[in-house]
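Marked as duplicate of an earlier ticket. Keeping the data here for the record.
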Amino acid sequence: MNQDYKLSLIEQSTDPLQKILEECTLCPRECQINRAKGERGYCGAGKDLIVYTAFLHKGEEPPISGTKGSGTIFFSTCPLKCVYCQNYHFSHTLQGRVLTDVELAKIMLKLQGEGAHNINLVTPTHFLPQILKGLAIAIKAGLSIPIIYNTSGYEKKEIIARLDGIIDVYLADMRYISSGLAHRYSEAKNYPITNQQSLIEMYRQRPVNSIEDEMIKEGLIIRHLVFPGYTDESKAILSWIKNNAPQALVSVMFQYHPYFKATHYPEINRRIDPAEYRQVTGFLDTLDLKGWAQELEADEGLAGIHFESHLEKWL
């Protein structure tokens, strides 16, 4: 996409999104508090942009990480806050560093300079106005690689619609299709409906996956983390994708560990077993969806619990 056109779209969206901070409804929690004046809602974020870490991530899906890595920026705190979160030490807190939009742009440009295939914005929604300001500065200074919106999928379609033409690749989770599970493990009973609506909007924007030299340039990847004991939930989710976004790439992950508070929930206080793995992968094979199914013994060392903050390198 022409970068001048993308820049014009960013500039059109930034002020309206900034205005939303005065009565914040960026995510489906719709706390309606004045973050512009420092008030804090469910996610805990105020007016400042907070980043935990940034690095060249080589553990994402193959067409994202490639050989040199994805230029990944992890933002602090999260609107969803799942009980099993592997990033809980910064996704459930404001641990990280307050950055200006100029500093965020500098990180993006340095990641590009180090060979990053893309800029991978992880859990960005609650900081969207600030991120767009930084992105505009970076584009003016020469940022040209694809922008990835890496999200838990707890999104509002109206906010995603504002990103049409700005985001090149959506990397979005589909955690739950059952409101009961969404409520139990994420206190987000409305997750299924908001998730499905936002995924349909992402698919409308990026219905075709453009891949060049084995790297994704535009498209939609839907991730699903399989939970122990809930193979029927996984099958229902994969069926929904087949029926509603059949050309999307699918990434089925078996890396679940009972991190954080999951030990307090006996039914999910274990790993996926081989029989569950075979059930889900066998069902996946019947759907003719393109993408990836993670090995049962995924590399636990790539989990966010092991990430350290090394922002000084990029500033």
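See parent ticket for discussion. Residues 181 and 189 are 8 Å apart (CA to CA).
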